[in-house]
Specification:
Elements lengths: L9 H7 L10 H31 L6 H24 L11 H34 L9 H24 L19 H39 L4 H36 L11 H21 L2 H11 L4 H8 L5 H8 L28
Helix pairs in contact: 2-3, 2-8, 2-9, 3-4, 3-8, 4-5, 4-6, 6-7, 7-8
Length: 361
């Protein structure tokens, strides 16, 4: 029977796996990592708080997509908390941690990243349901959206707790990984492959949306003579989709591949030299999500600006008084939740070609 080491500190496991935590977390590299990490976390806290507040404050955002968007912002906010906890419990401090505190440190990261990933998948499915049925909003009720949000966090918490519940190497030192000295290599393979599969599903969903929008754009272009908005709206959607896919690929794939290589016990891959940078890259995805999902929405951006600069609210309203609000336009075109040929990008952004803005992109 294998001996278990529940009462050991982390220096025991770092020594067993020949992982050095002192030399690689000192000097200029440590300063750069901490500076970037601090800046990212501050931006994550501020931007995602604004997104959540905007969804709560503006009744035009009380629809399934925006509820899921607010939950994504909450997941990204949690990612910032997890990284702050990591910054205070990493480097030379790692060796002084107890097993339970180290599990907490990694569990917070796994929970936050899984919540963001699953939320992105749910948003992709929700958008797919809406676009394929040519509706502004999906038919999801508030109860179903609440169930989805609870399910997202249940899955995320469970995935973060799996190693603590037993899938670890505390009783089998030979199975320990290099990047996570008390995680089993088999768990790293499972976790990385599972996330890559989810990523593949997202790619398939968005490719379907892309192909559909492209086909619909060609149909509208051949049957409409004066409405630029009918042709421009799908283009905007495609740009949003491609921006999302590009950000996700850049931020997530390198880290997942590194975890997979560690799980496969690749001792000559040099994963220790890049692990901290890929962690920052994964964190960057939580920075980019508010930009991709929110700042491209005129109504969301306007609401956030009003919350930031209350003193300029009257001036902003004067400048926009001659423009019809995008959400009102959407509702006027689709009061019963029907067709959106004239334009919806993520819920409330309508084409402006018929409003005198045909020259703006």
């Amino acid at each position: 029977m294998n001996e278990c080491y529940y009462d050991k500190r982390m220096d025991f496991f770092y020594n067993k796996t020949n992982t050095d935590t002192v030399d690689e977390w000192t000097g200029l590299q440590l300063i750069v990592v901490l500076c970037f990490g601090t800046f990212f976390c501050l931006f994550i806290f501020i931007s995602n708080s604004l997104v959540i507040a905007a969804v709560v404050k503006n009744k035009r955002f009380h629809f399934p997509f925006y509820y899921l968007l607010a939950n994504l912002a909450a997941a990204d906010f949690f990612a910032g908390i997890a990284y702050v906890f990591l910054m205070f419990n990493t480097g030379p401090v790692s060796k002084t941690l107890t097993v339970n505190r180290w599990f907490l440190r990694q569990g917070l990261l796994d929970t936050s990243l899984t919540a963001s990933l699953v939320n992105l998948l749910v948003i992709a499915v929700e958008r797919h349901m809406s676009i394929m049925r040519m509706k502004i909003h999906s038919n999801l009720t508030k109860k179903r959206v609440t169930f989805l949000i609870i399910s997202i966090w249940a899955i995320a918490i469970f995935m973060g707790a799996v190693p603590t519940l037993g899938w670890n190497c505390l009783c089998d030192i030979t199975a320990c990984s290099s990047l996570a000295p008390i995680y089993s290599r088999s768990y790293l393979v499972f976790w990385s492959v599972l996330n890559l599969v989810v990523f593949f599903i997202m790619v398939v969903v968005y490719i379907r949306i892309y192909m559909y929008v492209q086909r619909k754009t060609n149909v509208l272009s051949s049957h409409t003579s004066g409405s630029i908005s009918r042709r421009r709206t799908p283009v905007k959607l495609m740009k949003t989709v491609m921006t999302l896919l590009g950000a996700f690929v850049v931020c997530w794939t390198p880290g997942l591949v590194v975890l997979l290589l560690d799980g496969l016990n690749c001792t000559y891959c040099g994963i220790q030299n890049v692990k901290r940078w890929f962690l920052l890259l994964a964190l960057l995805n939580s920075v980019m999500n508010p930009i991709i999902y929110s700042y491209k929405d005129d109504e969301m951006w306007s609401t956030m600006k009003k919350m930031i600069c209350c003193s300029s609210e009257d001036k902003s309203q004067d400048r926009r008084s001659s423009r019809i609000p995008s959400a009102v336009l959407c509702r006027s075109m689709d009061t019963s939740g029907h067709y959106i040929e004239d334009g919806i990008i993520q819920g409330t952004i309508c084409g402006k070609g018929d409003l005198g803005d045909n020259g703006n992109s």
